[in-house]
Design a protein that fits this description.
The protein has nine helices and four strands, in the order βαβαββααααααα. The longest helix has 25 residues. Helix content is 51%, strand content 7%. A four-stranded mixed beta sheet has the order 2-1-3-4, with helices on one face. It has two domains: 81 residues, Glutaredoxin; 120 residues, Glutathione S-transferase Yfyf (Class Pi), Chain A, domain 2 (Up-down Bundle), CATH 1.20.1050. The chain binds glutathione.
């Protein structure tokens, strides 16, 4: 069964799925670039694939396109269980999902291109204020993650114990986003520690946005 990933180097949601694929040892047979800076996500070809005009989309074999990074990652976890990306116990799963959703549901949607473009074109928000907006929501999530990760007993070498999980995948994408918007992460030592532990793992390293085709050679 062939696997096709619709991707763009800078997309943080695609970054999450790339990490999960790499952790599962799955290499897509085809990677289709949808250049978000050129508006390819709004073209007729991609509209037929993903009516939300957002990345990523994964096509696994003959099935319909899979969208939404967290849904895709849970699908991968259920169809390729090794290594597991969610804990075995319900409370552990709730904790991991809640950390993941702080990034994927609460913070990341506020800084995607369609939101920044609406701020610019419809509301006339100048560039400096748009950047401040993104930095604010990135830092808000990093601060809340830091409080939880430094204060909760469930934290270990990674977000939840000593095994990599969905929460680490999301945390790493949030730290990459902080890098894109030059948000200082030194106030978040637990976040940094875990992100560094993840970056030592090959699957995380190879999935990094700056290691993808089309990415600038300097950050
Ligand atoms: N909740 C979605 C977010 C998808 C999303 O907004 N992706 C961004 C890139 S990270 C995108 O393609 N945005 C296109 C746009 O905003 O025009 C997920 O986790 O997959």
């Amino acid at each position: 069964m062939s696997i096709k990933l619709y991707s763009f180097w800078r997309s943080l949601a695609t970054h999450r799925v790339r990490i999960a694929l790499a952790l599962k040892g799955v290499t897509p047979d085809e990677v289709v670039t949808i250049d978000l800076t050129k508006g390819d996500q709004h073209g007729a070809a991609y509209d037929a694939v993903n009516p939300m005009h957002a990345l990523p989309t994964l096509v696994d074999g003959d099935g319909p396109p899979l969208v939404q990074s967290l849904a895709i990652i849970e699908y991968l976890d259920e169809t390729r269980p090794d290594p597991p990306l969610l804990p075995a116990d319900p409370r552990g799963r709730a904790r991991v999902r809640s950390l993941a959703l702080m990034v994927a549901a609460d913070a990341h949607p506020l800084m995607v291109p369609r939101v920044r473009e609406y701020l610019e074109r419809e509301l006339g928000v100048p560039e400096a204020a748009r950047t401040a907006w993104c930095r604010h929501w990135i830092a808000t999530a990093l601060g809340a993650l830091e409080r939880r990760l430094s204060g909760e007993a469930g934290t270990g070498r990674f977000c939840h114990g000593d095994a990599v999980s969905l929460a680490d995948i999301c945390l790493v994408s949030q730290v990459a986003g902080a890098g894109f918007f030059s948000v200082d992460t030194t106030p978040y030592p637990s976040v940094r520690r875990i992100a560094e532990a993840c970056s030592a793992i090959e699957a995380f390293a190879t999935a990094h946005p700056l290691r993808q085709p089309g990415a600038p050679t300097t950050a």
